[in-house]
Amino acid sequence: MKKFLLLAATLVAQPALANDFSGLRAEVRVGYETPTVSGLGDGKVYKLGNSASIGGEFGYDVPVSEKVNLGPFINADYANAKDCGAGLCLGSGGNLLVGGRVGLAVADAAEVYFKLGYDQFKLKASALGAEGSKSLGGVGGELGLNYKIGRKFYVGASLNYADLGEFAGLNFQRRHVSLHIGSRF
Predict the structure, then answer these.
(1) How far apart are CA 56 and CA 70, in angstroms?
(2) Structural domains of the chain, count
(3) Residues 78-117: pLDDT tens digits?
């Protein structure tokens, strides 16, 4: 019975903690992606081209204080960045990031947030008309800002970096910036 009363009290207290940056949200994202590779023995980082990206995100943010939210998210972006030479092309074919998010309300209409999670990146290659792909995975993080533009809508910008691990003796990374517009439900 004590657990039931504690749960009821928690649910009743929840609205007192609620802030304008909590609840279910969905957003559309446009950005710019640059996959990179290092580990060639010269200490340099090389770009695998760059391109525009488009994607979306779903998340659910739970208030833990008047200004702080925590919650899970999933986002997917597609870009077609590639670098070609001598009949061989290597580049990106999509990205999926799943993890947790911490948001901090810094003003009535502004929130900064940090995301950390598992990043899965599709590496694509083509040579002499043949194509192949490989999924790379690693740790991804994002730092961003959201600004409310009404009761339910917001706009924002973010910086993303992912360390995608090693494949064929090379280290792969993803650098991404995005603008987004979203709605809370």
Answers:
(1) 19
(2) 1
(3) 999 999 988 899 989 999 999 999 999 999 899 999 999 9
